[in-house]
Amino acid sequence: MTLFPGLCDTVLGESIIGRARAAGKLTVCCHNIRDYSDDPKYHRVDDTPYGGGMGMVMQPEPIFRCYQAVLSQLEGRRPHVVYMSPQGSVLTQKKALALSKMENIVILCGHYEGVDERILEEIVDEEISIGDYVLTGGELPAMVLVDTVGRLCPGVLSDESCFEEESHFSGLLEYPQYTRPPLWREREVPQVLQSGHHANIEAWRREQSLLRTKKKRPDLLAWAELTDRDRLTLRALEGAPGGDSAEKMWARFVRYNKRYKRRGYSAWHFCNCEEDANALAELVKKGVKRATTSALAAFEHDGEPVPQPGDLSVILRWNGEAVCVVETTAVTILPFDEVTAEFAALEGEGDCSLEYWRRAHDAFLREECCRMGLEFSTDMPVVCEEFRLLMK
Ligand code: SAM
After folding, report:
1. Dihedral sign, CA of 342, 346, 347, 353?
2. For residue 239, what pLDDT band results from cuts at 50, 70 and 90?
3. Domains in the chain, start-ordered, CATH in brackets?
4. pLDDT band for position 237 (cuts 50, 70, 90)
5. What span, in angstroms and rounded, lies between the C-alpha atoms of 157 and 100?
6. Quick check: pTM over 0.70?
7. Could you tell me the distance, in angstroms and rounded to a whole number, from the CA of residue 33 to the centre of ligand 1?
């Protein structure tokens, strides 16, 4: 019941709800309260508020007559009557599910300053709000309600499991979703989702749901349906306030990427200072930094092998907190002054120019040389390593 039936009909005539209506899975009728006005000339349905104050209030009688007309179409079945109101209880998925089980629902949309209190007492079963803010009318809230309730009704979505896994259904937020292509702008769909291993995929999705909910809406966890295993996962997350250690991140990585299980990894941070180490680790995590450069002499000096394509690394923050897992994809050794602009861009630092790269690496390599007791020269060999992000 609304003052703007055309608006509602148009919106609810499109997309999934529109198709469900056309297919007879859902019936939505929009009734114009003005048709039941006492005023034949202007079809007024509002008047000034008793006691004074701003705005107009919708009168009870036109709404009541409209309601009776709706009742007459329902052949004696009593509908559940909802008034869309900023004073109502805030709509949740649980409420939507409960409403989707009802046969007939009448929705009253208010306008102006609202409706005369007596009509609420006379016909309304509950007041529902779509959030703690005020709109000009109840039409948009009513459409939100019809959409969210309608899609839960049998036959409206092609597969009911569509919504069973969605955010809020079990009290958790949904896991991240991906579609083709598998590699988009250097960002790969997680290996586990490409593996076709259903049990692993399910475990990964559950963990992601828990992670996301904890990160984005920790308030939901108080009400979510959690298994003992979920609680364990959450406790593990809580037990690492500074984040994962390299071992923990690696264990999580191989759990979903079994083909890497037998492979070793190294854990390291960038640079020789906390600020740069943390900033560069963040750039890798964001997918901006996809390469790094070191002095060839440093590997020899530190007794470490020169990186090879296929090497796996856990990138750390300065404090040892693991940030992400990367795989080396290419290694080139060449003189410092022959490093190309393309490679500088892959390093993703500053404005990604060769000039910036030279300035930053000149300073870094001079410091490295000093540490090793060597002299810096612009033709000294450097190791240019490219990598791809596997997990963050
Ligand atoms: N004077 C009313 C008050 O303070 O509670 C607000 C009236 S509001 C401007 C006009 C109508 O918009 C309401 O009668 C209601 O139907 C609808 N409305 C506004 N905000 C809403 C919300 N957050 N949820 C549901 N309906 C809302």
Report:
1. positive
2. very low
3. 5-158 (3.40.1280.10), 183-239 (1.10.1270.20), 266-391 (3.10.400.10)
4. low
5. 13
6. no
7. 17
Q: Is the pLDDT of residue 242 over 70?
A: no
pLDDT tens, residue by residue, 77-91: 999 999 999 999 999
Burial of 23 (0-12, 13-18, 19+ CB in 10 A): exposed
Does the C-beta of 130 come closer than 6 Å to ligand 1? yes
Q: Which two tokens stand for residue 293?
A: 């450069």
Q: Is 346 in the pocket of ligand 1 (CB under 6 A)?
A: no
**Residue ID of nearest Cα to ligand 1 atom 26:** 85
Is residue 240's pLDDT more than 70? no
C-beta of 111 in contact with ligand 1 (< 6 A): yes
Measured by CA distance, the residue closest to atom 12 of ligand 1 is 137
C-alpha 112 to ligand 1 mean position (Å): 8
Q: Is the CB of 11 under 6 A from ligand 1?
A: no
Contact 386, 291 (CB under 8 A): yes
Distance separating alpha carbons of residues 353 and 380, to the nearest angstrom: 21
What are the two backbone dihedrals, phi and then psi, of residue 119, each rounded to the nearest 5 degrees? Answer: -70, -30
